[in-house]
Amino acid sequence: MSSPTGIHASSDAKRVVIIGGGIGGITAGIKVKRDLGFDNFTLYEQSDGVGGTWHFNTYPGCKADVGTHWYSLSSDVDSDWDTSHVTQPDLLKYWTGLTVKYGVDKHIVLNTSVTSVRWDEEKQIYHLQVEDVKTGEKRTDYANAVISAVGQLSIPHYTEELEGSKTKFKGVRFHSSRWDHTVDLRNKRVAVIGNGCTACQFIPVIAREPTTQIVNFCRSPGWYLPEIRIYLPKIIRLIMTYVPFVKTIARYAVFFQHEFYYFTFFNTSSIIRFVLSQYIKLQTPKKYHSQIVPPQGEILCQLVPYKTINSGRRTLAPGCKRFIVDSGYLKALNLDNLDVNYDGVKEITETGIVTKKGQHMDFDVIIEATGFIADEYPVSVTGIGGKTIQEYYREQGGPTAYLGTTVPGFPNFFTILGKRPNTITGHGSIAFTEESQAHYILQFLEPIINGWASSFNVTEKATNAWNSQLHKRLSSSVWSSCTSWYRAGHTGKITSVWPGFIFRQWFVYRKPVWNDYVASNGAEWERHRRSAHTVSLAKDLFWVGLCLAAGLNWKLLQDVSSVMLQKVRLSV
């Protein structure tokens, strides 16, 4: 890993800065170094290690809920995994290992946050201020292009709005993404606040200890899918290692499985709701059915936040909130040491929790599995005319970007997952999306690094057209039918989700529409682009001509064969 002393002072050489050392930042670094052969870049990571989600989340049972062979870099599918869904230690080892394999680790500066990014229109560069999070020392840097991969789920959300949440509780309290491994949960009364994907992974693990008494406080029900976890014996792993294309086939098998999920489950079909409800009921005690199964009834997608039915409970369309892949949570509800409480948390006291119904319950440990702050962009970014990206987002009613990657008025500023701008598919692999975005970004970095153009700025017209189309599709989707973290402020503009198949996302990231961008000092870039277009057109014409020639020759061959066959018949 690099040290902060390696920060550049001269702005003569072309330079790229990557913010964030999670999967997106690592992928971008690999592509910049390997695919472009470019070395003058730095990746700043504010924590003491890379890996993002897999660095911070170390709770028991932590793993990806997407098949690992798709939750990986396309060029580096690991054939040594013994299961289709590996756990956090293996994922962290995999992604940190890639930084070493491709030499990206030499460009990483840890314990350093980027606090501000300011565009210099005259020099066509960004001025950055960075800060050592341990010493508070501030430094400056510059970049011709900035890739922001700060991640959407990196800042823990604590229940600070609850009375007494900050100061009163005298026991042990921590967030699930900052798990305190020094705490022994045996013979402890444990409160778990939250029942999302994270809680449903660690609860069945800590509940295996019968002396740990657990109460899971839930706000609302969710939809569960059974985990399809496949053990891969050594013979299969050997085949994947040595037989060509088998790893690729395995990867695309997971891809099509998740495309099937979108086609099947992300709708308001009463049949789908019935099937999913039956799965939940078969796994859980009857006493929980009225609470844990999302209420049935006709769902009208465009009502916000829910449609209320006669029971007083609110309907929830499958897929509106993220599906929870059930890795044992529902079955664990049959255990005597695990209880579920839907009364709601009103107050945290010195000794425990008061529910909204007035019941006080004593606990030794409170674990908050309450998600993350996804609305706030953590870096001050200033573009053309002094406007900040935060101001632009407010004007748009929430985070907004073109293809979730570029923002008008912020040249050469690229985002991976964009701190929300509609890139998460809801049913696919974030790693796949981030790699697709990195491929898209590289096509801008090449002319910038080579000096063919100084900057690229997406037009407002293209951005508005894209978002108009995007939100038209979202308005009639399941995501518009409920409150969730997919929306700004949980109830506003849908800012996280990509509405559609993953294949379509890959397709739009395959190649930029250059007419949607304004290039500065780009005369040479235009010449290169026209030249490349001519070569591409020539190749296309060659293949078309070859096909036509083959077709004509085939016709000629058929005619000759017909004549010869006729002669043979006559001779007989």
Automatic annotation (TrEMBL):
List, in alphabetical order, the Gene Ontology terms for molecular function in this entry: flavin adenine dinucleotide binding; N,N-dimethylaniline monooxygenase activity; NADP binding
Q: Which UniProt keywords apply?
A: FAD, Flavoprotein, Oxidoreductase
Q: Which family does it belong to?
A: Belongs to the FAD-binding monooxygenase family.
- Protein name, please? FAD/NAD-binding domain-containing protein
